[in-house]
């Protein structure tokens, strides 16, 4: 019994280190969650949306995502959707389809998003950063005129992607 105790003492720090080490998918999820959260705050604060935002319906158009960033459309869409749904007294969120363009109610808004690379990779001593620009646009479901537009800029850690 005493012989196994030193072995356990040697393995305990190793096992604790494995449990505490963050995995790449968690880092990516967190980076996308933070970006989605910033976008959701901006959208729900948009002056074009009547108050309270809980009475509004956002129809999410499939986002346009630049392949250089290494983030798929669905991953970004999921992140944005989750962030919008997490807003307290926030809007209802539905996926947009072309059939929704006719007969939209006064409380419906089409949300378009474009996530683009905004310059070359920035090489630091310990990582690479990918500059991005996220453009958010609100339109009425049956119209083409822009009711509100905002751009967010930042950089994603390439090692998280």
Describe the protein in words.
Strands 1, 2, 3, 4, 5, 6 and 7 form a seven-stranded mixed sheet that branches. The chain has a single domain (23-160), classed as Rossmann fold (3-Layer(aba) Sandwich), CATH 3.40.50. Mean pLDDT is 80; it is low at 13-25. It is built from three helices and seven strands; from the N terminus they run ααββαβββββ. It is α/β, with parallel strands linked by helices. The chain is elongated. A hairpin with a 4-residue loop joins strand 5 (122-123) and strand 6 (128-139).
Shape: elongated
The total tally of domains equals 1
**Largest sheet, if any?**
7 strands, mixed
**CATH architecture field:** 3-Layer(aba) Sandwich
From the alpha-carbon coordinates, what is the Rg to the nearest angstrom? 21 Å
Which CATH class applies here?
Alpha Beta
Q: What percentage of the residues does DSSP assign to strands (E)?
A: 25-35%
| Fraction in helix | 25-40%
CATH topology descriptor: Rossmann fold
Low-confidence stretches: 13-25
Number of strands: 7
Query: What is the CA–CA distance across the termini?
Result: 46 Å
């Amino acid at each position: 019994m005493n012989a196994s105790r030193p072995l356990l003492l040697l393995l305990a720090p190793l096992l604790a280190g494995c449990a505490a080490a963050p995995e790449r998918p968690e880092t990516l999820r967190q980076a996308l969650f933070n970006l989605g959260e910033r976008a959701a705050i901006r959208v729900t604060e948009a002056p074009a949306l009547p108050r309270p935002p809980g009475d509004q319906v956002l129809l999410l158009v499939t986002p346009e995502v630049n392949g250089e960033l290494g983030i798929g459309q669905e991953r970004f869409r999921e992140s944005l959707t989750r962030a919008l749904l997490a807003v307290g007294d926030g809007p209802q969120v539905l996926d947009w389809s072309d059939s929704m363009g006719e007969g939209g109610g006064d409380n419906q808004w089409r949300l378009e998003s474009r996530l683009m690379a905004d310059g070359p990779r920035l090489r630091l001593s310990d990582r690479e950063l990918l500059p991005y620009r996220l453009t958010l646009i609100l339109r009425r479901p049956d119209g083409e005129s822009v009711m509100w537009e905002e751009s967010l800029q930042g950089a994603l850690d390439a090692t998280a992607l």
